[in-house]
Amino acid sequence: MSTVVPLSVSVPLEIRASGTKPQPSERGTRFHLSLNVSSIERVSSFLQLVLGVAPAKLRADYAKFELDSPPLVLSLEPNPPQESGSLNHLGFRFATTADLLNAQQRIEAAGISTQREEGVECCYAKQTKFWVHDPDQRLWEFYVLEGDLEHRGGGQTLEQMVGDSTSCSLGIAASRPVVWEHRMGSEFALPTELADEIRLRGTFNVPMSDAEMTRIIQDVFSNLKPGGQVELHMLTSESPPTGPIELPGPAAYVKHVPVRTALLQQLAAIGFIDCRLTTFRSGACFQSNGVPLRETKIVAVKPGDSHESSRTDLVYRGPFAEIKDDYGTVWRRGELQSVSSVRWEELKKAGLETSFTLIPQTSTFSQCGT
User: Fold this and answer.
1) What are the distances in angstroms from CA 342 to CA 123, 130, 277?
2) Distance separating alpha carbons of residues 7 and 74, to the nearest angstrom
3) pLDDT at 367
4) Per its UniProt record, what Gene3D superfamilies does this chain match (predicted)?
5) Greater pLDDT, 40 or 19
6) Is the per-residue pLDDT at 189 higher than 80?
């Protein structure tokens, strides 16, 4: 049975502002709450009146209040509250890296999966942190502050976060793509509305059967808009690992590794097109019983009206009786196969153009004599 370490947080009635710029090591553990707001400026002004303190940070796309009593870090994110509500995430900021590590070890010992990030730049600060999901899929952040920054963080700009300000001010959300993400270890519960993009992070690296994997891919396909895409990020292998998978560090949560070619074939069989590898490490990240495990990112598209004419019919000419490409597709000499135009371009770039005959869309083709 794991031992719960108390946070020793007292909450007196008096509200006191934090010092101007105290060092993180002097602050102790603080509760952290992040809210989605429709206007950083308006909500910051409101909170300044309610709390009686000025924001510790105030930018066009971010604000933060810090209190000593109660010990609180309250941040505001420019995401107009919609169906998901006003809560962005919550958690705790620790005084030291040792405190953070102790908390992560205690939580993992209790059987809860965590995702760690080292030295990330976000919210105008450099932080080391880990995340967990609670049973209702709320996101909890546990972090230490390593220093302030003058920029928000890599890849995070006001335009990318909130889109067109006119649309947001009018309450128009239709122009913003619907993106849903699942992370390894959290409950797999797809959104009720169709998505433009679904991201699966380590989803297939937890124990599951082939039938369960197929069901998840089918559900993802059904919950995408026509023309929407799925992005998969995980460890894959070239052949099924034998025996239990035992990996070091945060990768210890990986207990299942799909075979890359089989996964690509499953995507195509369910109806995805333009399946392509966007990341495939030539060097293995890990070895499991002699089987190399590689970081892999796959992107695939659900066909839409614009994709009807993007297929290419090919016949493999030889010289071999059959070949297998990097996606696991078996090409037999003389047989017709239909692939996406993207795949055909990849085959040409690989120098295989002369090994295939391109069949015009208006042509008929007979398998006789093959």
Assistant:
1) 38, 37, 11
2) 18
3) 40
4) 2,3-Dihydroxybiphenyl 1,2-Dioxygenase, domain 1
5) 40
6) yes
Q: Give the tokens for residue 161.
A: 């976060």
CATH 3.40.50.1260 fits 16-158, yes or no: no
Question: What token pair was written down for 114?
Answer: 């965590």
> For the whole model, what pTM was predicted?
0.44
Cis amide linkage into residue 240, ω under 30° from 0: no
> Two tokens at 235?
């460890």
Our measurement of the distance from residue 22's CA atom to the centroid of its chain's CA atoms, rounded to an integer in Å, reads 34
CATH code given to domain 177-306: 3.40.50.150
pLDDT tens digits along 60-92: 888 999 988 778 888 888 876 665 567 767 888
Contact 92, 102 (CB under 8 A): no
Closest of 60, 43, 39, 41 to residue 51, by C-alpha: 43
Q: Are 225 and 196 in contact (CB under 8 A)?
A: yes
Enumerate residues 6+ apart whose C-beta is below 8 A from 229: 196, 197, 198, 299, 300, 301, 302
Length of the chain: 370
Q: What are phi and psi of 164, to 5 degrees?
A: -70, 125
Q: Check pLDDT > 90 for residue 219.
A: yes
Q: Residue 234, exposed/middle/buried by CB under 10 A (0-12, 13-18, 19+)?
A: buried
Beta strands in 27-134 (DSSP E): 30-36, 57-59, 62-69, 72-77, 87-94, 115-122, 125-133
Q: Tell me which amino acid residue 195 is.
A: A
Which tokens hold the place of 40? 């950083």
* 117 and 146 Cβ atoms separated by less than 8 Å: no
Boundaries of every domain in the chain: 16-158, 177-306, 309-359
